[in-house]
Amino acid sequence: MPSRTTAAITAVGTYLPPDRLTNADLEAMVDTNDEWIQSRTGIKERRILRDESKATAFMSTEAARACLEKAGVGASDVDCVIVATTTPDTVFPATACRVQDAIGATKAWGFDLSAACSGFLFALTTGAKLVESGMHQRVLVIGADTMSRIIDYTDRTSCILFGDGAGAVLLEPTTDGTGVLDVVHYSDGSGGEALQMPGGGSLMPPTHGSIDARAHYLQQDGRSVFKKAVTGMADAAAEIMERNELGADDVRYLVPHQANLRIIDATARRMGLSSDKVMVNIERYGNTTAGTLPLCLSDWESELRPGDNLVLAAFGGGFTWGATWLKWSYDGSTVAEKTLAELSA
Ligand code: COA
Predict the structure, then answer these.
(1) Residue 156 alpha carbon, nearest atom of ligand 1
(2) pTM
(3) Which pLDDT does position 286 carry in this prediction?
């Protein structure tokens, strides 16, 4: 009997802006310190896109180009571009349309997907369904955010957390049993106000008043987001393991959204995973919102082998959260630009 068609990740590409914002830099901007930031979050530095003429579409385009080059696939062979982002270049046109044009994906359609820090997870599912259904052969799924453009650098409770970055994956059909195998996804709009940017949409268009009220910046009740994120990510990861009868020994890596090291540790504990099975790069990049999961996949690419079971898990504004069981499809050691050891050095 032929196996079912699933969507395999066949390449990963990323873009990280060169400028770094360290904890020492933040100490000079707000009343904080390196020890507090590291012990509460695990973050040491983040990347910031300083060039104001560039934004999320630029980073997405660079990541998409790198991804297609590694796959050996031409942009004109891409069928669809999905950009998960909370910081689109403009409300419209969609960032995906800018990327489609910039890379020369002349036959592709595309759209943006808004699910905050769960954006990449939800976009991966959406892209996978386009491939599984037989509708498309090549879908680019991008997670990208220029968080520095919506962060209030006078608010010490949030400005220490976020950074900028982008990652792209190419999805192609396979029948070899690898790829996106199962997902659990959730939303709970009742938690919306705990993590939001109140201004800039149709409810509160920009006015002098909204600017004076700092309504065009991210606002967060960190403590309540933390509580909900710990249970949401851990429950979703446990659920996907249970219903697919995956034990801790079956899982090669947890690929967690990088919001806070303590949330990641709690999720790993719930799954029964030792720390060597958990992708963590929050110390280098902070929370890049939709960028975190593909940035992890890229950093660990050299370690990944066909058949490795990965559990991706995320939690974000909305609230939105979920987990995905992904069986890895290719030998990352043959294509990764850098080894994990080089990246961590
Ligand atoms: N530097 C120093 N002190 C700070 C600080 C900073 N950057 N930010 C807050 N504090 C202070 C607070 O004012 C508070 O002081 P008080 O006790 O005198 O009132 C104290 O530190 C503890 O604050 P609290 O908010 O309880 O800290 P916390 O342990 O919850 O950590 C976060 C704060 C934001 C790191 C944490 O709540 C968190 O990570 N939340 C989730 C954020 C998140 O994941 N967002 C994205 C969702 S995907």
Answers:
(1) 7
(2) 0.97
(3) 98
